[in-house]
Amino acid sequence: MKTIRRVYKDKVKELTDSTGLTKKQVKKIVSNSLSAVESPIELDEDEKKIVSELNAGDIDFINNMPLFVKFGKITVLHAGVQNYFNLESLSKKEESKVLRLRYITNSGKFIPFGDKDGDSIFWSDVYDGKQGFIVYGHQQFNEVSESKNSLGIDTGCVYGNKLSSAVFSDLNNIESYSIYSIDSNRYC
Fold this sequence. Notes:
Blueprint: H1 2-9, H2 23-34, H3 45-52, H4 56-63, E1 68-71, E2 74-77, H5 92-100, E3 103-104, E4 110-111, E5 121-122, H6 123-126, E6 133-136, E7 145-146, E8 150-152, E9 162-168, E10 177-183
């Protein structure tokens, strides 16, 4: 909760939550926990603790978080994009994919988590760069994953690997970044 409050107090545009929960998951947890209707979602102890500490300002901030942010030629988002996406006018289905995308088929069809096979293609391997140079998480790598038009910085901090970041010295030059990583303690 300290992270969330610091982010909205300092008017930071993007939140990478150390709990590993996506914006959509946090919204669902909050709305279900505040609803008088019985929810089919069962919260674990960490999620219950998060919800119990939320105040009205936290909930308002979470409900108004952007799906992505752009800084010059750099776009930061949770998971990934498909080449036909226009981030400025996404459908609800496409918004969901921006939060969940990992793999696609040869014909560009979204592959749900757990259904990938030997023919699956990781989205960033075919991403054309039309939505900017994408910096993303969601898919854990042992080291930062560098592609022509994207940078995967999820290096498994929550699983005891590393916490990684990309620092750009020029937001209009996609090659102007440095990678910083530190070893982490295992959190789950």
